[in-house]
Write a structure and sequence with these properties.
D-Maltodextrin-Binding Protein, domain 2, 20 helices, 3 domains, Lysozyme, 10 strands, 508 residues, alpha/beta, five-stranded mixed sheet, globular
C-alpha cells in the first residue's frame, strides 16, 4: 500500500493549458497539416467570434450548406484536444455528426468558461450551444432547447481521506465551490431555500477537472458538480469520490436562442430521432461514459504509480508492437497493464504467462519463443489482438476494438457464441453496447448448453474490456502518440508469421 499511498496525491498528467484572447478561448490552427488531420471530421475551426466580453456580431441566419456556429467551452465532457492534438469530447463528436448529416460547415467557438456560453448565445453569437447544459425551468424560459440526449445529476465531490458528507448540513461552514452557470449552481440555489446556512463560492476554475483538483490539493473541502464530469475527473484525481446527490437529475440538451432559425429545431428533432433509433446515441454515450466507475481508487493510484515507474522500461516494445500491427501502442499498453500490471514474469492459475498473459499454443502461433521475454510477449499479444480485430471487419470502430479485447480474454469461439445470443435477442452483435449485455449469459449452464463452445466467463471478458478502455483513455490523455519513422512500410509487415495457423477458438 505504500506505493498506492504515494501515488494517491500524484496526478497522472498535466492539466490541459488554455490560452484566451478577449472572450474567445481558442483560435483555429490553420496549418495545412492540422486540416489534413481533421479532414475526416468535416471543416472545423475553433475560432474567435467574440471580439470583446460585452460585444460581438450576431451570426448570420442558417442557410443550406452554410456555416453552423456552435458555442461550447473546454472540458473533458464537451471539447478538448488530446495528447495527439486531435479534437475530442462527447459534445464535439455529437455536433460534428449533426453538421455532416445536415450538410453544414461546422465551426466551434470555444469560450473560456461555461458561464460565458449562454450569454453569448443570448447575443446570438452562435446558432446553438453544445456545452452539457441542463434544461432547467429557468433556462427554458430564456432559450429553446432541442431533444434531450443525456440525464445527469449533481453530486458533492470529496476526498476519501476526509469525512464523507451525509447531508447538506455537512456542507455548512465548509469551503465549497461550484462552476458558475452550471447545473450544480442552480441545484444549490434551490437547496439553499431549505438548508439553513448553506453557502458556497463561485469558482474561477476552468472546468470540473480543475475544480476537483482543488479538493485533492486541500484548497477547498468540497466541489459540487455534475455526476458525469466528476466520474471523468476521477481518472486523474484518484482520491476523489462522489456523495450526496443534490436535487433531481436533469436532461441535457442543446440550447438555441429563444427565436432560432426555424429550420434548426426541425433538423435537430430529426437527427436525434435517428441516432436514438439506430443506437448511435447509445454507442456515443457508452464510448465516453460507459466504462467509468469500474476501477477503484486503489486501482487508479496503482496504475498512476506504474505509469511513472514501470512503463518507461517497456515503452519501446509497445512502440515496436504498433509498428508491427498498426494498433495504437497505448491500447496495447493498456491491455498489458490489465493482464499483468506490466509484469513480464506473471503467471496465472490457468497457465497463461508473461506481460500480455498468453497461452503457450497461441503464443507459438504468434511467433513467440520465450513467453517470459517482455519484447516477444508484447509483440505476440499485439499480433493476436490485431488478428482478432481483423476477424471482426463488419463491426464499426471503436466497437470492433472493444469486441476484439473481449475475444482476447474469452476466445473467439466463445465470442461467436455471445454474438449468436445477441442475434437471438434482436440485438446488433457488432455493437459493444449490446454485446456486453449478453456476454455474462455464457456463465449460465442453461444458456451455455445451447452454445457451440459451452460455458465461459463472459462477465470477466466484459470487466477486462471496460478496464482496458479506462486505462487507454488515461494513456491517450497523458502519453503522446507514436509516429513510426517508416510508417509507409507498415503494410508490408505481416501480422502473423508465415506458415502460422489461426489459434484455436476455445479461449484460454
Amino acid at each position: 500500500m505504500n506505493e498506492v499511498r504515494h501515488a494517491r496525491r500524484q496526478r497522472i498528467g498535466q492539466r490541459r493549458s488554455a490560452s484566451t484572447t478577449g472572450a474567445a478561448a481558442t483560435t483555429a490552427d490553420a496549418a495545412p497539416a492540422r486540416r489534413r488531420t481533421l479532414g475526416a471530421l468535416g471543416v472545423i475551426a475553433a475560432g474567435s467570434l467574440l471580439p470583446g466580453c460585452g460585444g460581438g456580431n450576431a451570426v448570420p441566419d442558417l442557410r443550406p450548406g452554410g456555416e453552423l456556429v456552435v458555442l461550447t467551452y473546454r472540458s473533458a465532457t464537451t471539447w478538448y484536444e488530446d495528447a495527439d492534438n486531435r479534437r475530442a469530447g462527447f459534445e464535439f463528436e455529437l455536433a460534428d455528426r449533426f453538421a455532416r448529416e445536415a450538410g453544414y460547415e461546422l465551426r466551434f467557438v470555444v469560450l473560456p468558461q461555461l458561464a460565458d456560453v449562454l450569454p453569448a448565445l443570448e447575443r446570438r453569437q452562435g446558432h446553438l450551444a453544445a456545452a452539457g447544459i441542463a434544461a432547467t425551468p429557468e433556462l427554458e424560459s430564456r432559450f429553446r432547447f432541442g431533444p434531450a440526449y443525456q440525464e445527469v445529476g449533481v453530486v458533492v465531490a470529496y476526498d476519501v481521506d476526509a469525512r464523507r458528507p451525509q447531508t447538506l448540513a455537512d456542507l455548512v461552514g465548509r469551503r465549497v465551490e461550484v462552476l458558475e452557470g452550471s447545473q450544480a449552481q442552480a441545484e444549490l440555489e434551490r437547496a439553499r431555500r431549505t438548508a439553513t446556512g448553506l453557502e458556497w463560492a463561485v469558482s474561477d476554475a476552468g472546468d470540473t477537472e480543475e475544480l476537483v483538483a482543488r479538493v485533492t490539493q486541500g484548497r477547498i473541502d468540497y466541489a459540487v458538480a455534475e455526476s458525469h464530469a466528476v466520474s471523468l475527473a476521477r481518472n486523474f484525481h484518484t482520491t476523489i469520490a462522489s456523495a450526496l446527490p443534490i436535487g433531481t437529475p436533469r436532461r441535457l440538451a442543446w440550447a438555441m436562442p429563444s427565436r432560432p432559425d426555424e429550420r434548426l429545431p426541425r433538423e435537430l428533432a430529426s437527427f436525434f430521432e435517428r441516432i436514438r433509433g439506430d443506437a448511435t446515441l447509445s454507442r456515443l454515450l457508452d464510448r465516453y461514459y460507459g466504462h467509468l466507475q469500474r476501477l477503484t481508487e486503489a486501482d487508479l493510484a496503482h496504475f498512476a504509480a506504474r505509469v511513472r515507474t514501470v512503463l518507461p522500461q517497456y515503452r519501446r516494445f509497445f512502440h515496436e508492437a504498433q509498428d508491427v500491427t498498426g494498433l495504437d501502442w497505448r491500447l496495447i499498453a493498456a491491455l498489458g497493464f490489465q493482464e499483468s500490471h506490466w509484469d513480464p514474469k506473471a503467471v496465472s492459475h490457468t497457465g497463461v504467462r508473461g506481460l500480455m498473459m498468453m497461452q503457450d499454443d497461441t503464443a507459438a502461433k504468434m511467433g513467440v519463443r520465450n513467453l517470459l521475454d517482455p519484447r516477444e510477449n508484447i509483440l505476440g499479444g499485439a499480433r493476436y489482438l490485431a488478428m482478432l480485430r481483423d476477424l471482426l471487419a463488419r463491426a464499426p470502430e471503436p466497437d470492433r476494438t472493444w469486441i476484439a479485447l473481449a475475444a482476447y480474454n474469452i476466445g473467439f469461439g466463445h465470442l461467436e457464441d455471445a454474438r449468436t445470443l445477441a442475434r437471438e435477442r434482436k440485438l446488433d452483435p457488432n455493437l459493444w453496447v449490446h454485446l456486453k449485455d449478453v456476454l455474462p449469459l455464457l456463465m449460465r449452464p442453461e444458456v451455455a448448453a445451447r452454445t457451440r463452445f459451452g460455458i465461459a466467463r463472459g462477465g470477466e471478458a466484459v470487466i477486462l474490456t471496460e478496464n482496458v478502455r479506462q486505462y487507454f483513455d488515461i494513456l491517450r490523455r497523458i502519453e503522446p502518440a507514436y509516429r513510426p519513422a517508416f510508417e509507409s512500410l507498415r503494410e508490408e509487415i505481416s501480422l502473423v508469421p508465415s506458415g502460422a495457423r489461426l489459434p484455436r477458438l476455445g479461449g484460454r
